[in-house]
């Protein structure tokens, strides 16, 4: 990719900075840092503020202060992980919902290097009364629904936190985590939407109750109804999903042979099938999965060769299915805050 035709991030907001990856133009399966989407609730922490030490406290036998260089000396693990913002594709909901109007680029894939969280918790000695683990980043600011400043905090149930593939990362693609993506430490929670992967992580606190912070109980909650909170439930596991990268929506093409390509991902099992429809869902054709096998937390690249001789307008659909039997729906689960959009990926092309 030459400098002259290199894509750029797509800005959704400047204060705080929220920018999409140019997902339709990214060919590498592992995304370079300059193309990682940026999702922030507050301004970036001051560069002098993030400590190069990690603190573990609360209901532990041995509170810990862990220097950055100490983590580097431990046995690291590498995880190829897809991270997707819970609001990715929010702009596609009908009726529309409020929030950052993400299209399809609030998603990334890369190799994160770090130490399993449970290793550090074992060192600290978690109390038998522990219920949840709270993760606090150094980013902070005022919310519209609160009078005071708050830090970004999220929690995980103890059982989830002890999963061996949840890591405290200190590198991305073999280099220190870029500052705008969480340096020096970032929690990485594979298979969950990326709000769980707390950036600029500084403090890990073990508690004996359910955490009630606003980014846990107000935001990142599915509200199925516009007028009330009946049936609300937390946002957690990634839905099965896909995106058509090429051709672009409303492209004009000549008759002949074209490649329809894209990516597919899931939070349960692995992607084992992507189907393409060229007639608005009346019939389906199997696409080719390109990167088999790949990391169990990574997206799959797929393609389909389309031979077309008849001119006219076409609607192209892509539908992914995972090994747990979950399939993308034709109609998404609408919810008031616009999380977890995963209806079939749809584009329109005109053959001339």
UniProtKB/TrEMBL annotation:
Q: Does the keyword Lyase apply?
A: no
Q: Which residues form the Oxidoreductase molybdopterin-binding domain?
A: 41-214
**Which Pfam family would be a valid example here?**
Mo-co_dimer
Q: What are its cofactors? A: Mo-molybdopterin
Residue ranges occupied by any Moybdenum cofactor oxidoreductase dimerisation domain in the UniProt entry: 235-348
Any one Gene Ontology MF annotation carried by this entry is: molybdenum ion binding
- InterPro entries the record matches: Ig_E-set (IPR014756), MoCF_OxRdtse_dimer (IPR005066), Mopterin_OxRdtase_euk (IPR008335), OxRdtase_Mopterin-bd_dom (IPR000572), OxRdtase_Mopterin-bd_sf (IPR036374)
Q: Name one GO biological process term.
A: sulfur compound metabolic process
| The organism's place on the tree of life at top rank | Bacteria
SUPFAM superfamilies under this entry? Answer: E set domains, Oxidoreductase molybdopterin-binding domain
Alphabetically list the UniProt keywords: Metal-binding, Molybdenum, Oxidoreductase
PANTHER family associated with the record: SULFITE OXIDASE, MITOCHONDRIAL, SULFITE REDUCTASE
Task: Tell me what this protein is called.
Answer: Mo-co oxidoreductase dimerisation domain-containing protein
Species whose genome carries this gene: Thalassobacillus cyri
